[in-house]
Design goal:
Oligomer: single chain
Number of domains: 1
CATH class: Alpha Beta
Order of helices and strands: EHEEEEHEEE
Strand content: 35-45%
Radius of gyration: 15 Å
Length: 147
């Protein structure tokens, strides 16, 4: 398991250069307007979306898991705690097919628990909004994130 930090950046090339130097690794996946780093130390999935006009630099937070049942376990735990969840099984997002569950924290920050099933050549689409929307807008590599 590792934490995910998804950022909106003004210039993807500058951001990739900076974070490559900062963490001493090259991107795990690089597409137009998108990059992600799978960093071992510290265990972090850093995701960058080129969104020059974004008002917020923090896009969303997440927890990447590596075993099939961990998304289901997280979903059950969140629901038993009375939290509203949005489950997406085998959805295409961020150039990968994923299983995931979304929740919104009290101030509206989006969190996801997810597992990457396989890579995809397409970016994907945004998730439907939870009952209490947090301002998710149309998403694409140029405008934000689906994941």
């Amino acid at each position: 398991m590792r934490l995910q930090l998804a950022l909106n950046v003004k210039d993807i090339d500058q951001a990739v250069d900076f974070y490559s130097k900062m963490f001493g690794v090259e991107p795990h996946k690089r597409k137009p307007g998108y990059a992600n780093f799978a960093i071992d130390a510290p265990p972090l999935k850093l995701v960058l979306f080129e969104v020059p006009e974004a008002e917020e630099r923090l896009n969303h937070l997440g927890v990447e898991v590596f075993e099939d049942d961990q998304v289901g376990v997280a979903t059950q735990r969140l629901r038993e705690a009375g939290m509203e969840t949005l489950v997406e099984d085998e959805s295409t997002c961020c150039y990968a097919k994923q299983n995931k569950v979304w929740v919104n924290e009290p101030d509206g920050m989006r969190w996801e628990w997810y597992e990457v099933l396989e890579d995809s050549e397409t970016f994907g689409a945004q998730p439907p909004e939870l009952e209490a929307p947090v301002g998710i807008s149309e998403q694409s590599p140029a405008s934000g994130s689906c994941c």
